[in-house]
Amino acid sequence: MSCDVDVQRVASVLGAVRAQQPVVHCITATVSMGIVADGLLAAGARPMMTETVHEAPVLTTVADALLVNLGTLSTDAMAGISATVEAAIAAGHPWVLDPTAIGTAPVRTPLARTLLASGPTVVRGNASEILALVHAGPGGRGADSRATPDMAQDAAVEIAERTGGAVAVSGEVDLIVAGTQQGRVHRGTRVLTRVTGTGCLLGALTAACAAVSQDRFMAALAATTWLTVAGEIAAQRATGPGSFRVHLLDALDEVGQ
């Protein structure tokens, strides 16, 4: 077992993911499907990916958790997301909303705000996305944030109060909010921002952790710690972003073992 104090704090959740191998139904960005699937498998969870209105609401009932990521939103996903969320909630499954690149986007922005009313277990996004969920504004530049987690703290608290869940705000120092609990994760590496899909992977890891822990704050904290610590390990071994991606998968398997 790792002697890293941050990892030790969430070790029970990481161990539960590996023991229970939860199935995470991922509606996620097309460009990130590979790293999301591989990252979940490396962490000990199992991915399932389908987004059509004809199949996704049915198949989500056999999963353990649902991720709804709005990156590269397809017509099929747009049609199927709401029904899939309803089916997951009816089945009693936790679900994670990742409102990727909302703000100026005319379709995903109102959809994200509508989905928020369904009470996600965890909302995970960067500071600009979290701000855009509750305030009119331009948001970030695509998936990049123009704000810091501290700037989004009030918005995160408001979202947590609305949903009764947790909010994880990614940034140089990650912020986790749930009820009266607040925490910060001072870990990670900038190389995580140079590989497509690491934010999407964090959403999927959050869903996996929520599947095995009823403590929403701890689920969000565990997933954030898991990815950021794995990122640090990968950065030490990699020679660039390409090799970093490979080492990241290895490190996800290693953290907490």
**Rg estimate, integer Å:** 16 Å
Q: What's the oligomerization state?
A: single chain
Based on Cα principal axes, name the global outline.
Answer: globular
- CATH homologous superfamily label: Ribokinase
The CATH architecture is: 3-Layer(aba) Sandwich
Q: What structural category do the secondary elements indicate?
A: alpha/beta
Do you know the CATH topology?
A: UDP-N-acetylmuramoyl-L-alanine:D-glutamate ligase
Q: What is the chain-wise order of helices and strands?
A: HHEHEHEHEHEHHEEEHHH
How many helices? The count is 11
Strand content: 5-15%
What is the mean predicted local confidence, pLDDT? 93
Total strand segments = 8
Give the number of domains: 1
What is the CATH level 1 assignment? Answer: Alpha Beta
Helical fraction = 40-55%
Query: Low-confidence parts, pLDDT < 50 over ≥5 residues?
Result: none
Terminal CA distance reads 5 Å
The side-by-side strand order for the widest beta sheet comes to 2-1-3-4-5-6-7-8
For the sheet with most strands, the description reads: 8 strands, mixed
